[in-house]
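User: Could you check the structure of this?
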Amino acid sequence: YLLASALAAIINYPLWRASALAQSGFRVASSSMPPSLAPYVYAFAPPYKGMVATVFGMTWARAAIFWGSDRGKEVLTSSTYSKDIISPVVATILPPLLVSTIVQCINMPVVRASITLQNPQSNLTNVWASLKHIYKTQGGISSLWHGTSAG
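Assistant: Sure, the predicted structure tokens are below.
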């Protein structure tokens, strides 16, 4: 699970970065290319601020969700009592829902910090500086989990 998740995170990092730019409304200034293309070129080019934290966060999160989904379904369907109580549909849906919710709550501060770093106008240099900036300017500790949604 971990190796496949790491490979997927590394390959998808530039696409995540382009998506973070677009969804956050960050603007990439470029006089040499069309504005619609600039965010994608920027996403594939250095500097890669927050890349290690982002790839690590994506890696463990995906691995935990896939492993937790498989293992959770195994546990829910293996008990002799569970066959009478838990339907196969619930055993399939419940583990990824629970695990992904837990993963999102754990990862959210790093996700917020990593997205903040993708702003081309940002002077922040790393995830720790970004976390401190969010904490100080966005309303304290709860601001680190702003945007968290279940599932």
